[in-house]
């Protein structure tokens, strides 16, 4: 049963509710580990992205990064219950050959996500694509279920007027090459030397290998703008445990406080973990506002660090309010240990104050974001709690906290 189903089921009989709670609780207790391969030619920008997203580097700091030798393995804790085992694979040809031969099983087994980076500046596109085909073939052999994210990177180096056309052209080439890679694997016989995958052991002939439907997404990215956050938020989105529970609870909170939009950010990367938008909020014409907010808040954090002389990975701020007169109001506040929450509201002082208090009251119901050991309850209970909190409708004025 998915988290969402478990949560929804909570509205049934008492036994159903208890069972659903137990199921949700069991789910929340698990720490998920994900192997994430970061691959692509040397100099394509892999380590830069990783350092900006997870280690608080500024884009300009990445010019000082040394070349990655072999595989740089890091364990990134994301929220309380997800660990990303990030394999930053040095992209020099000798290393790539080694991953595909001696280290093949070691590198490509149990992969949750492959992030493959193409450098738009590369002068040898044919060779890059040939390597890509080999990598995808190896991945399909050992981890057929892995999600693939292809980043067409350093888009800032392409003239803005031709960016879209360049991206579209690369997308079609990459899709064609991916199909080629899949075809190679399907043609291989089970006895082939490079085919020790358990997934491929059972079929007696190559024809018996079922069609392979890869889960692949492509993004145009640059470390110099918010496109990086869009791509990486998509990458982590599907990995986040209990997403159904998070979404349901955010929706309950949004409705209870009468918000236009709520974004939940992971505290270090400022990637959007989840979001909820009201019907009114959906009329917002800025489709890229989520990654823009990630980028803005991260820059704001770095600016705070510069002017206070505190380390960049320190917390930096706990509360940020922005009131745009009759248009809208917004606040960003430290929510749980591992998250910040952004709430966008229609204008109105009373509504704003009430929302702030209710967000504070809802905090305990999101504690499961901070670790597997802490329990959480389905959203129906949270709603009851928030509903019994401060109301913006009944008189509007929240009591002094
Ligand atoms: N113009 C531009 N340069 C980038 C971008 N991303 C990374 N770089 C630069 O590319 C160089 C190589 O980056 P690095 O992360 O070490 O590449 P890796 O070998 O794939 O890990 C560094 O000087 C980065 O500053 C980008 O989006 N645009
Ligand atoms: Mg590197």
Automatic annotation (TrEMBL):
UniProt keyword Nucleotide-binding, yes or no: yes
Region (Disordered): 187-206, 380-401
Localization, UniProt: Cytoplasm
InterPro entries, alphabetized: Gtr1_RagA, P-loop_NTPase, RagA/B
Main location: cytoplasm
SUPFAM superfamilies: P-loop containing nucleoside triphosphate hydrolases
Biological processes annotated in GO: cellular response to starvation; negative regulation of autophagy; positive regulation of TORC1 signaling
Alphabetized UniProt keyword annotations: Cytoplasm, GTP-binding, Nucleotide-binding
Signal peptide: none
Biological role stated in the UniProt entry: GTPase involved in activation of the TORC1 signaling pathway, which promotes growth and represses autophagy in nutrient-rich conditions.
Stated family: Belongs to the GTR/RAG GTP-binding protein family.
Name used for this protein in its record: GTP-binding protein
């Amino acid at each position: 049963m998915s988290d969402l189903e478990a949560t929804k089921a909570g509205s049934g009989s008492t036994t159903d509710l208890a069972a659903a709670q137990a199921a949700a609780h069991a789910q929340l207790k698990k720490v998920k580990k994900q192997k994430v391969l970061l691959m692509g030619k040397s100099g394509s920008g892999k380590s830069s992205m990783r350092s900006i997203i997870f280690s608080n580097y500024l884009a300009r700091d990445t010019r000082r990064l040394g070349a990655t030798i072999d595989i740089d393995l890091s364990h990134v804790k994301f929220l309380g219950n997800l660990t990303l085992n990030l394999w930053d694979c040095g992209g020099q040809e000798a290393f790539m050959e080694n991953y595909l031969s001696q280290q093949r099983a070691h590198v490509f087994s149990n992969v949750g996500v492959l992030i493959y980076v193409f450098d738009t500046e590369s002068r040898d596109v044919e060779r890059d694509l040939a390597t890509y085909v080999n990598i995808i073939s190896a991945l399909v052999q050992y981890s057929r279920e892995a999600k693939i994210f292809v980043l067409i990177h350093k888009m800032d180096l392409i003239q803005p007027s031709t960016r879209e056309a360049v991206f579209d052209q690369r997308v079609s080439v990459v899709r064609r090459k991916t199909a080629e890679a899949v075809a190679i694997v399907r043609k291989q016989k089970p006895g082939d030397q490079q085919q020790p995958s358990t997934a491929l052991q059972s079929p007696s002939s190559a024809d018996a290998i079922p069609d392979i439907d890869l889960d692949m997404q492509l993004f145009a990215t640059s470390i110099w703008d918010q496109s990086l956050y869009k791509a990486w938020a998509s990458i982590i989105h599907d990995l986040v445990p209990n997403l159904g529970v998070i979404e349901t609870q955010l929706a309950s909170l949004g409705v209870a406080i009468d918000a236009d939009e709520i974004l939940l950010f992971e505290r270090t990367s400022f990637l959007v973990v989840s979001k909820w938008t009201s019907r009114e909020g959906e009329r917002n014409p800025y489709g890229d506002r989520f990654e823009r907010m990630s980028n803005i808040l991260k820059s704001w954090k770095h600016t705070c660090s510069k002017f206070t002389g505190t380390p960049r990975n320190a917390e930096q701020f706990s509360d940020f309010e922005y009131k745009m007169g009759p248009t809208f109001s917004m606040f960003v506040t430290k929510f749980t240990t591992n998250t910040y929450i952004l709430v966008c509201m229609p204008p109105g002082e009373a509504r704003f104050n009430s929302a702030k208090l209710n967000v504070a009251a809802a905090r305990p119901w999101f504690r499961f974001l901070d670790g597997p050991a802490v329990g959480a309850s389905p959203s129906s209970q949270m709603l009851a709690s928030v509903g019994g909190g401060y109301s913006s409708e009944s008189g509007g004025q929240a009591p002094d906290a």
